[in-house]
What we know:
This protein has about 140 residues and is an alpha/beta fold. The chain has a single domain, classed as 3-Layer(aba) Sandwich (Rossmann fold), CATH 3.40.50. Helices cover about 55% and strands about 15% of the residues. It has a five-stranded parallel sheet with strand order 3-2-1-4-5, sandwiched between helices. Helix 1 runs parallel beside helix 3 and helix 3 packs antiparallel against helix 4.
Amino acid sequence: MVGYYDSSVILAALLAQRLDIDPAALWDAATVRLSSNLLKVECIIGVRRAGALQPARSRAEWTERRIEALERHLAAVHYRRMDEAIEAVIRSTGSLSDCRTLDAIHLATALYLAPHIEEPLSVVTLDNRMRSLAVKLGFSVLP
Length: 143
């Protein structure tokens, strides 16, 4: 399976969020992982925000361990930069205004990539709003 990942799956795994689904299983389901380079920034900020909530005596160590794990995850992703081609998809796809800006960039990137790969592209996200719009855009969505 070729999966387009947003930050929600990686952050759920790194932050050990209690969910009905195992984010590691979602990660392992893909043979190829794609995303926008936006993913890197979203995940770093997410880990640092969570780190700020940790007890002061262990905050730096907790955050550093998660950043190291994050780097391993990010190394397993093929990235597409946000550029004029992605902007053109956003301009031509009015329904992308039905979600938050960063989600719109992710979905525009998925729309751009889909015709350039041989297998169907599945959007992998734990964000309900992004899931809903991805389905409307014709993507299969995991979970």
